[in-house]
Amino acid sequence: MLYLKAEKLDAFLARAAETRKLYVPVDSEPGRSSYREWTPGTAVSRGLHTTRSAKDFFFPQTENLAGFRVEDKKIRVIDPRAETEDFAVFGVRACDARSFGILDKVFLADPVDTYYENRRRHGLILSMSCRRPAETCFCKNFGIDAAEPEGDVRFTDDGDGWYLEALTEAGKAFLDPLADLCEDRDPAGAEAAKEKTREIVDRLPLNDLPVGKFGGGKTKELFDRPEWAELSEACIGCGTCTFVCPTCQCYDIRDFDTGREIRRFRCWDSCMYSDFTKMAGGNPRLTQKERFRQRFMHKLVYFPENNGGEFGCVGCGRCLASCPIHMHIVKVMKRLGEDENEQ
Amino acid sequence: MRKIGVFVCHCGTNIAATVDVKAVAETLGREPSVVVSEDYPYMCSESGQNLIKDSIRDYGLDGIVICSCSPRMHENTFRKAAASAGLNPYMVEIANIREQCSWIHKDKAEATEKAILLGKAAIAKVLLNTPLIAGESGVVKRALVIGGGIAGIQTALDIAEAGFPVDIVEQKPTIGGKMAQLDKTFPTLDCSACILTPKMVDCAQNENIKIYSYSEIESVSGFVGNFTVKIRRKARYVDETKCTGCGLCTEKCPVKKVPNEFNLGLDNRRAVYIPFAQAVPKIAAIDADYCNMLKNGKCGLCSKVCTVGAIDYKQEDTFVEERYGAIVAATGYEIADVSRYGEYAYNQSKDVVTSLELERLMNAAGPTGGTLLRPSDGKHPHTIVFVQCVGSRCTPDKGKPYCSKICCMYTAKHAMLIREKYPDTEVYVFYIDVRTPGKNFDEFWRRAVEEFGVHYIKGAVGKISPRPDGTLDVQGSDLLMDEQLHISADLVVLAAAIEPSKTARSLATMLTASMDTNDFFTEAHPKLRPVESPTAGIFLSGVCQGPKDIPETVAQASACAAKVIGLLSKDKLKGNPCVAHSDEMMCNGCSNCANVCPYGAITYSDKEFRMPDRTTKTRRVAWVNPAVCQGCGACTVACPSGAMDLLGFSNSQIMAEVDALCR
Amino acid sequence: MRNKLVERAKELLADGTVTRVIGWKRGEFSYDVTPAVFETAEELEKDFVYDGFCGANVSKYLIRESAKEGKILAFLKPCDAFSFNQLLAEHRIRRENVYAVGIPCEGMADIGKIRSAGIDGVTGIREEGEEFVLSTLYGEERIAKKDALAERCLVCKSKRHPVYDELIGEEGEDLPDDARFEAVDKLEKMTAEERFQFWRGELSRCIRCNACRNVCPACTCENCVFDNPDSGLSQKAAADPFEESMYHIIRAFHVAGRCTDCGECSRVCPENIPLHLLNRKFIKDIDELYGAYRAGENAENKNPLVSFREEDAEPSVVHERGRA
Amino acid sequence: MNSETLIPHAVVVDEVRADTPDVKTFRILTREGGKPFDHIPGQCAMISVPGVGEGMFSITSSPTDEAYMEFSIKKCGHLTNWLHALEPGMEVTVRGPYGRPFPVEDELRGKDLLFIAGGIGLAPLRSVIRYVRDRRENYGDVQIVYGARSKEDLVDYEEILTEWMSAPGFTVNLTIDRAEEGWDGHVGFVPNYVTELNPDLAKTVLVCGPPIMIKFTVKGLSDLGFKPEQIYTTMELRMKCGVGKCGRCNIGSKYVCKDGPVFRFDELGELPDEY
Amino acid sequence: MQVNEQTGFVPTIVAFCCNWCSYAGADLSGTNRLQYPANVKIIRVPCSCRVNPMFILRAFGRGADGVILCGCHPGDCHYTTGNYYTRRRMTLLCSMLDYLGIERKRTRVEWVSAAEGAKFAKTMRSFAEEIAALGPNRRLEDLRVRKSEPEGRVPDAE
Fold first, then answer.
1. What is the ipTM of this complex?
2. Residue pLDDT, tens place only, E14-37
3. Residue B202 covered by a domain
4. Is B610 near chain A, with CB under 8 Å?
């Protein structure tokens, strides 16, 4: 099995960056990292999570959809897209790696979102096993193995370096030319590292969420639960949870007048925003309770209902860490999952 | 999408010489919403206006843009034209391509490009204009005149003659003002008091006029047609209803050394006094600063001698509140302080006097009974030097930048009168220029020089030094002869600058009327609206607006009255529809807007709102009184939520202009 | 202290003074408390917390809560009390529906600081003297309280409550302002280029999640200009660096003279942008140019941006300051 | 035209008809003439004025109208204000078609149809009505119950009078909310009128109108014995992308723009009450 | 037109002028044929206090290189007090822009009375010169508006 020693990482990334843009997590301050384009000398973060998820690479916060020029009172429509270049994202954890599959179910469903699809086709996922999960991690609940992330190439971290496995053809094509920077090692080492990860994961405090209480077909049971009022009471209606979430994909479409043309772009939107569903005729979700409920119902009921039981959450824990008032999916699941008798 | 018409004016060659008007019309015609774009030599002419009107009708235009001169010039013209063609007048925007384009640029390509941009900005704005309808408000048929000098008197009399009630508020115990202190008037040399006092009496006797003497304006609120004014009636310790003006008290009062302001302190009066013989109202007043009774409770003599029991030591200031449709500021002027000019030794010698003091010294009712005597020793002066432009026409740090206008003429008058009455007296006048533009003015001055032998010296006085012998050494230069002069004078008369009344500024603040840097009230338009303040319903009469002589003052006073009468004759007033308004659904009720509103146009109330989820919510929301709002827009910026916006200059309109101009 | 508050709240509920209590509710890991309204003694007993992690400012919730029937007991830290008072000045809260209890604050800890000290996997925290003892997935750790203190608390403006119906604990005092403006000072001393780079670096991380705005007790507009499609400014995401600057400048401007410097904006920012340094700049400028002023000090005070003095400095003072 | 892209196409407004004081019908053509794309009755399209916005509107012409495409649009906001100011010859953009149509070639075939509409709610049904009229042989009897606030608020009134009333097997019942001069037809609200008319239980119902009207009509129908499976409606809710991805038009797990806008009432019964 | 001779940069300048003083001052400089560069484009507002900081930022965002706000001299406001508020608002705004590292010279406030046509022209000349020397606004620009951005391709076969 290929093994990349930690001290060889720079050389590895340098080579990888010759053929495509390479994005790696970089510490912006202690305990906080974000993706940057790799350039020689970039120090790769060893932290667990980037503050924003890796969905940005495929579903950026803003993206131009179309342009319009009005010339002599005639409209000329312009496709603003340039050719997408190949790129790779390094250090994607198991939860984020799973999130791409969830986004695919939305954007690649008929009719295919060609903007997303285009990026997806050009993007390579270099995933990374977790060695030091946080207390906020709860991916295990959704059947995600932090030790064996999905992706094109899997990096299994043993503390000194990484065991590398190509999981897809694209991954193989990427990895083969880089094999000379690696050494060959017994896959048992990889297994040992994975076991170590699983050992920690098993000790995590949020492993036993009442997942069974949720899923497709539970709308009737959950929609009118009185607890929504108390759960949403403190919600300030910001979009933090949705914007750091690797699976949230709601967007808005807007026009911007650059002076020479009208540019139609889409941008992230949040179902938590008071004006999300506002329209000329009124707003069907008037209170924060309804908006709050929508977000969690979507992730825990509607999405699985439409997608073969898969939840719209990967348990990355970003919302737990960043919610201004610490009201998040775990508290929601726990509260709604409480046995009716206990109440 | 709206249908917009664009009309580009050549203004003869004023615009067309520098701006390719055809190109402007053609380019703007290609804008998406423009359905007609024309150019014409004179849009403001009747045929130009007809072109606009016809286009509005033919194309069913929703808005028009006129590329022409400044909106300050013809906005109203075009609005009226639009209205007569059935288009709301506020659907008109002007692109100023003359004052702000053709007149300031030379390069035709550049100017044309800019004109197009300005046109585009106006189109962007007019696309967001909304038809506005001016609100109406009633008119209180009563006028207030602040100041009882000749300006106020004339204005009040004219308004009263037209049948409207007028109140005069005068801070002194009598009306009459400065003119009452003058001896003779130029150029006719008739007696000032003789022509003024009958008018004062007319005021007192006119049923439509009410005089609040010894009174001040305390506060003003409201707006054109409907002002509410609080008047402070200062305690005069004499019951006006009882006092007959017999003057007995003023003779018996033991406090005799009170400087007599009517005679500018050149003699004394008593603590209880009637300012002068012909005072209107002829009612005594007690000077609380000097009266023994009021100061320490000892005396009471006047009360004892008063046969009608009019003295009332317990009197206090009282307040009157009255509503007015129009307010006239006629606050007049004061003599600027000349003691700051040490070189003229005004403080060092009693024989250096101001012209107004000279008036009193020459007046039959003055301290000397009309005989010209030196204040220091009561002797007849044989050499008199007049110094012109004292404090006028200076750099701002030295004095007033303006010309006080009346000094040249009154000095000629004084010189002439002295030479006539005392031919043994030599009179010298130091001047910078002699300014005599006025009917019979130059003739008058030439008579002083030619017939009366007054010595006019073009030059400045450098220093005046009192000599031990009581004369004054006047050191000056004669620019024409190019020599330094020393004149030994018995009396020096300073033609002191005149300045607006000290009370004018606080009054202007109350009236929300604007002032220039010299504290003269600003007129709404220096040429076309010279007797109106920019604040609607506030009018200007007399010197408070700028230096002027008596005939001019009276002319302005009557003009002002005509304007007031015009206003009071209306039953309803159309307001400016470009006012602020608050979107109740967005208003937070924070009061920021009310805090910055200079007119108190914004009030708050708790209002119940039906929410979309059928609950009700009580919220505190702002309301703008459109009749009070003047449309400055201060509130719109103070409002964080953007609930407050200004009609005619809305956030989106201004931003649309910004966008268009930055392209 | 927590027990004292619970006892008092129970009394006030019992005697009918109030019908509800707003405070903080226990979370999963000690540090993740949630502002909450409690209606019964049982709820209070079970979930009410007040400890070193109750940084959330509850004053803004009182806009909504005070509009409801019945009186609510609000536990206000000094920061919360300033915000509360400012909201009173802006007529946003019905005073008669709030029973304000001032409570002392020793400064609040910031889990972010604990994490950046290299302590991860924190599952529980207890206080031990001047230290926090943290149980983590990877063993027990300790950190001095002062090292865990939130930045805003290190430069605390006041331990005093400008308004309350009742105080629990000793009333504190205003603290000197010098330290509070140090960071602003430092920025002011940089060159324009350095300042630009600093702010571009910070603001470019903004994801326009609106947490700063939505948590801010001064941002209480019924409809924010940035949400209002008719304002011409509405934006969902900063599509351009300009829009990031625009949003933050205008937001700071809208709260200028009203911001009490409670620091919530920076606390909630998921990207840890020091947003309070924008507001604090305005506070500093206002103090320097228009005289010392503290929003929330007094419900009758007039915001310096809606008042003036004739002798106010000209805008060119900014240029002159730059030359000095 | 492909439906996968969010990039629209420019089309020309060929004709504008003012139906009521606040409803206008726009006939659009490509620059070359002809329809921008084909559709099935019940489907929608996104119309936009660049710089102003984009909105989802029912296609009110029928697929059998081969030369053009029409939209009836009520003035109710920023975008529709702009649209109402359009003049023939001006351009807008359009993309579509979107959504699940009425099952005109499946469940509805051979059935007796009852159309119930209120106000602008006639617009989405008009496409079906015209389709059924043009493919008369495929359907049974047609009854149309249509009501509006007043006579002048009746959309397509001319067409109803001249084309629908005379179509073979068509019955048209009109009603207005309040009596007015020059109206000798029925007066009253649609739900009550439907109950009064007591339609045959074998009919398949297509209903569209304001939510409150739909609610009471459906209740009336079910009181009469109609089953939810017999009733179809179409919804126009806060759609933005039109392709089931932007996340705002869902009712429970269903997206109106993709799984709708046509729903059968038994399907709606499964969804939470959030519309 | 004011041009930076070295770089060929032609600045865009927006001037907000209050209707009563500065706009009239601008008219007066026109009446007196006092030239100032054509880069300066004037927007008429009723009072300087109508100018929202949003407008100024908007101008920069849409491509302005300099923004100048002109009003009546303090104390001479047609609305009595409007420009006093303007003064505070603009002082703070300028200070904030400076704090963010945005060139402080790009934003200016000047008091120009209706009588100061010459001052208006002179102010505009000097401001335009200063902005031309400063170069294009890069620190507070909206990149989408930048004039040199490439176009996309046209999908419709047109």
1. 0.91
2. 999 999 889 999 998 998 899 999
3. no
4. no
